[in-house]
Amino acid sequence: MIEYVTEGLLNLIFPLNCRICKKPIRESKGYSICEDCFQTIELIAKPYCVKCNKPLSLSPDWEGLEVELWCVDCKNKHFSFEFSRSVGKYSGVLKEAIHLFKYQGEKKLAKPLGNLLINYLKENPEFRELIDLIIPVPLHKDNLKERGFNQSVLLGEIIGNYFSIPVKEGVLIKKRLTPSQVNLSKKEREKNMREAFLVQRPQEVKEKNILILDDIFTTGSTVEGCARELKKAKAKNVYVLTLARSV
Ligand SMILES: [Zn+2]
Ligand SMILES: [Zn+2]
Q: Second label for 67, Cα 20 to 30 Å away, from 28, 118, 158, 198?
């Protein structure tokens, strides 16, 4: 309560402007992107690859046909997870919001971002029913110390609370400090993530249907690193959900 009052007062004295559209935010919820801008987030829509969710373009002959499509990448390589889904495209407002959340400490953005995941799972109940537990992609302890929080854990807690799905931290850990993936090629990313993760408590994943949760799916090398270890530890099925996907 006091927090809201203080925020409201601060907002009167120093009106907060939306980071994207620059318009004043009338009702501050403690984050700097307005509701209107959130509405512009571009969702991943069909047609897409059934394995990795990469949006595909179809020739007009194929339009409207109910076929399972695979992208070229997935035809040529093996992913250990059953399938991956992402809410939106990693661009515009969603990209900006993830950056503010992750690198600039706007932890309160976990709420609207978490809501995007909740809405996605509400609209895809069959996906939700496949899940026994959620494992947020872990950070290496040095990175966690530096950032102070794990963005995927915050998101995991929001959807776990909403749907009453257990969220497990510490079952899977990141044992190796990996260089930043930003400027790495697809091959280098895969090499970077190989054996970076470790299942610390295999009894908790054995025979379970697991949802790996992360903020961004780029080439899939991070979630694949996690999925591979979970499968080695006898997880039954592994699914992936991320907020954004680079396209
Ligand atoms: Zn705005
Ligand atoms: Zn694919």
A: 118
Ligand 2: distance of its center to the CA of 56 in Å?
Answer: 9
pLDDT of residue 4: 58
- Into how many domains does the chain fold? 2
What does the DSSP assignment read for 153-215?
HHHHHHHHHHHT--B-SSSEEE-S----STT--HHHHHHHHTT-EEES-GGGTTT-EEEEEEE
The Cβ of residue 77 has, within 10 Å, a number of other Cβ atoms equal to 13
Q: How far is the CA of 43 from the centre of ligand 1 (A)?
A: 18
Counting ligands in written order, the one closest to the CA of 245 is 2
Residue 16 lies in domain = 1-36
Q: How far is the CA of 19 from the centre of ligand 1 (A)?
A: 7
Looking at residue 143, its pLDDT comes to 93
Q: Is 78 in the same domain as 27?
A: no
Q: Looking at this protein, which amino acid is placed at residue 208?
A: K
CA of 24 relative to ligand 2 center, distance in Å:
41
CA of 184 relative to ligand 1 center, distance in Å: 32
Where is average pLDDT lowest: 31-35, 44-48, 115-119, 185-189? 185-189
Ligand nearest to the CA of 76: 2
Answer yes or no: do 90 and 173 share one domain: yes
- 54 & 21 share domain: no
What is the reported pTM? 0.90
- Same domain for 30 and 142, yes or no, is no
Residues 178, 193: one domain? Answer: yes
CATH of the domain at 77: 3.40.50.2020
